[in-house]
Amino acid sequence: MPTHTMRAIRLHEHGGPEVLRQDEVPVPEPGPGEVLVRVHAVGVNPPDWYLRDGMSDLPPETRPSFALPVTPGTDLSGVVEAVAPDVDGFSVGDEVFGLLRFPSFDGSTYAEYVAAPASDLALKPAGIDHVHAAGAPMAGLTAWQFLIELGHDHPSPFQAAKHHPVPLGDGVKVLVNGAAGGVGHFAVQLAKWKGAHVIAVASGAHEAFLRDLGADEFIDYTKGRPEELVRDVDLVLDAVGGPHSSRFLRTLKRGGSQFPVFFGQFDEEETAKLGVTVTGTQVRSNGAQLAELGRLLDAGTVRVAIDSTFALADARAAHERAARGHIQGKIVLTVAQ
Which residue among 51, 171, 188, 329 sits deepest, i.e. has the most Cβ atoms within 10 Å of its Cβ? Predict the structure, then answer.
C-alpha cells in the first residue's frame, strides 16, 4: 500500500507554465465506485493549460467551476492499488488507463496516486507501455466520439443538436486538419481503419509520419491552401479550429459535414447555401469505448505517437513544449516508481 503522502503538481494561481508547482499532499482514498491507481504516466492535453491559465480562452458559460489549489490532468496509465468494495471488474495489480471525470476538471492526474472512477477506466493494452497508453485516452476518445460513435446523450455546450458521426467506409473522403497532433493522428488512423480515403493537412515536417499512419494524400499548409486544392470531400475533421475554420467548408461536397474539434466561427446562411453541416461535441470519459480503442492499440491497428516525455516534476517544461506547437502525437509525463 502507498505511504500517506505523495507528490502532485498543483496550481495555486493562474498563469503561464511557471505556476505549476510540486507539492506534498495526502494520498487520496477511493470512494464508492472508485479505484486507487498508482500513476506511471500522464497524458498532457489542452484542457491542462486551459485550467492553468484560468479558462481565459473558453466562453464564460462553458467554464466549469473549480477552486485553487487544483491538480491538473485527465489522462493516466498506471496500476490499481486498491479497490472500493462496490467495484467489480478491476483488481489490485491490474494495469489500467483512462480519461478521468471529463468534462469536469477533477481528474487530478498530475500526481503519484489518483482515485479514479472505475467507469472511466479500461485495462491497459498489454502490447503497449504506460507512456503510450497515457497518450491515448483524451485524444483517442475525442477522435472516436467525433468519428465512430458518440456513446452518450449529454448535450454539447457548443450546439443544441446532438452530434452524429458520418458513416465511414470505401469511397468516403475525409480531410483531417491538424493531422499530426494528438486528436489528428488518431483521426487519420480511425478513418483509415473504417476504409475511408484520408487527406492529411499539416506542416511538411510531418508528411512521412502521416503517410506512415496511412494518409492517402498530404497537404503542406505552409505551401498550399487546402481550400484551394481540395474539392468534393465528404467530411472535414478540423482539429485546429479557431476563427478561420470556416474556410474548409469550400472543400466539402453538398451534403458533406465539417466537425470542428475546437468550435470556430460559422455563418448559418453560408452553410445552408453550400448545403453542408457543421457539428461537434464535447469528449466525455467512457471506459467502455476506451476498451474498444485499447483492442485496436493492442493489435497495432492504431498506435500512439509520442512527441516527447518529461518527468512529473518537469511539468513546466512539458507545458512549455506544448506552447511551442507543431506537436507530433502526444506529450507525456512519466512518474518515477
Answer: 188
